Amino acid sequence: MATMAARHDSQDDPSEAGSAGLPDFGDHIDLMTFEQILEMDDDEEERDFSKSIVFGFFEQAENTFKNMDASLDNKDLAQLSSLGHFLKGSSATLGLTKVKDSCEKIQHFGASKDETGTTDVNDKELCLERIKKTMGPLKRDYNEAEIILKRFYHDA
């Protein structure tokens, strides 16, 4: 039984051995999604195309975080929802799963919904508080993904 489990893990889970020689990014980056970006590179050594996309995202994310902080200060739920939606899309494109999930929650809270987006929450202060609580893990997960990706591109 243990032999079958070990064989299952190594054959069916590409993150165990890494795919195409890529490191295991853990649960921060969806390997299959990220590989689609890497496939667009002309040179697997330089990876200029994917690197420009990833580093462009870093700049975009930093600016979005500043705008989110300002929107929190202004208690602007609609803007927070919009910013969450924006960053959710770009992080999903790169496979930044944890970042995407937190951004989706912020999008929902900003739209005066619960974290799943299914139930109305008619309490602006509660929604703002939930966004504040989500911002910490969002920034932490972003920073961890940034470190992983900079290391991948030998730019750490």
Form type: elongated
- The SSE order reads HHHHHHH
Major sheet characteristics: none
Regarding quaternary structure, how should these chains be classified?
Answer: single chain
Rg over CA atoms: 18 Å
Approximate strand percentage: under 5%
Mean pLDDT, all residues:
88
Number of strands: 0
Uncertain residue ranges? 1-19
Q: Could you estimate the helical fraction of the residues in percent?
A: over 70%
Q: From the helix content, strand content and strand pairing, which structural class follows? A: mainly alpha
In whole angstroms, how far apart are the ends? 42 Å
Q: Number of DSSP helices?
A: 7
What does this protein structure show overall?
- The chain has helices at residues 2-12, 14-17, 31-38, 48-73, 77-94, 97-110, 124-152.
- The chain is mostly helical and 156 residues long.
- Helix 6 (97-110) runs antiparallel to helix 7 (124-152).
- The protein is elongated and about 50 Å long.
- Residues 1-19 have low confidence and may be disordered.
